[in-house]
Amino acid sequence: MIYLDNAGTTKMDEDVKKAMLKYFDEEYGNASSLHSLGQRAKEQLEIARTQIAKAINAQPNEIYFTSGGSESDNQAILSIAHMGKLKNKRHIITTKIEHHAVLHTLEKLEKDGFDVTYLDVMPNGIVDVKALKKAIKKDTVLVCVMFANNEIGTIQPIAEIGELCKQKGITFFTDAVQAVGHLPIDVKALNIDMLSMSAHKFHGPKGVGALFVKRGTPIFSLIEGGAQENNKRAGTENLAGIVGMATALTKAVKEMDKVNKKLVKLRDKLIKALLKVPHSALNGDAVNRLANNVNLCFEGIEGESLLLMLDDEGICASSGSACTSGSLDPSHVLLAIGRPHEVAHGSLRLTMSKYTTEEDVNKVIKVVPKIVEYLRKMSPVWDELEKGERKHVL
Amino acid sequence: MFYSEKVMDHFRNPRNVGEIPDADGVGEVGNAKCGDIMRMYIKVKDNKIDDVKFMTFGCGSAIATSSIATELIKGKPIDEAVKLSNQAVVEALDGLPAHKIHCSVLAEEAVKAAVEDYYKKHPKTKTKNK
What we know:
The complex is a heterodimer.
Chain A: E1 2-3, H1 14-25, H2 36-55, E2 63-66, H3 69-87, E3 91-95, H4 100-111, E4 115-119, H5 129-135, E5 140-144, H6 158-168, E6 171-175, E7 194-198, E8 209-213, H7 228-231, H8 239-274, E9 280-282, E10 293-298, H9 303-312, E11 315-316, H10 322-325, H11 332-336, H12 341-344, E12 347-351, H13 358-377, H14 380-387
Parallel strand pairs in A: 1-11, 3-4, 3-5, 5-6, 6-7
Antiparallel strand pairs in A: 2-8, 7-8, 9-10, 10-12
Helix pairs in contact in A: 1-8, 2-8, 3-4, 8-13, 9-13
Chain B: H1 5-12, E1 25-31, E2 36-45, E3 48-57, H2 60-73, H3 78-81, H4 86-92, H5 101-121, H6 123-129
Helix pairs in contact in B: 1-2, 2-5, 4-5, 5-6
């Protein structure tokens, strides 16, 4: 099997699994218990917190453990919205390419009287900081821009946005689920106030994540109960998961340069080869993108069929077609970068990991053009394009 | 699996793919914006569907529903073929996921559109049938 859906989830690293095991059968204590088993759990919890803080240049008491990226996104946004309400500031700025965990939370806030500006992105999938600056109002309480996009891999100008928000005194939250463990992150240098991460995107376990909250930034609890996480997130800590996340992140940061160097080569090889397919295009910026991300559109075909045929060839990939999103519309990200609906349906996302080999990439380069050609042969859309009854856009 | 074995079989080995250059009726339904277009060609002889071919732009189930629809109407009298329902398509495929039912509706509509086109081009046959 060739697994190229690493933006969806990653394989857990063997070292991570090993580090986690003893927390299931030996060190199973509750970190809130007074006995030694519990206290050892507490100690481990704090070691993990320190490791995670170090990976992004934060302080340990600025790290809150959660169930994953979606919870972290919700908590960050709802916390600042709550503060905004108290200060009578109800304007939030975000982008059209955020993850649904962010967009749906903001839509909920709109129903609650918040005014949300959804910024367009440039055709290369990158936010225009000038447009962001222009969108700032007197009552802007939060700017919410993702670090790197999950579909097209574009890396946003986080340092510039951080600087701007600092000047204007606006809280800056970044959903960094696709970036943590993949890009160097220094929350202090980048002036980030809040940042979310998810362990399973960097070879850690599923069901665990964290929210970085800069000291002094107010947050409130989404889940009421015990006093865990400094009263901001009730519930017995998922210690095995947290240790797994810390182990995975420490390793990812250590391996980052080496892995990225390899992946950039494989990425650019894939892109170059697949763009030889006539009437295809790369989605997102060619340079300012995650080392593991390839996202292309092929005119005249539909993504789900492509995925099913790739699966038959042992290749796991994903698409922004409507059929894979569970709605009638194709990916909001592809629409935001200006792809027409019919083209957005024909997208293919290949996201690699440190486990991806040159051999894997070579197989994809061999298989994808054949499948595209086969599907085009039976496509009435392609037929019309070829006969000139419909205009090519790619 | 998300799809039944039958759906996957028709997706992997679609029956009657292609075009009929001298078709007696051609129907095209759906739209590319929504991600599904089906085009169906029929050849009619003695008021029967003598040959049928399809071309589809769409997801796995769109290809599978087109394929099975061609099998279900091939050789059938034209007035029987036109009655093909989307339920019959779903049943013949051993079911479809709920959000894919619209593909079976498209298959039904594609057959109807092809027959409609045939009647338009051959108005006399319609009167004869009635």
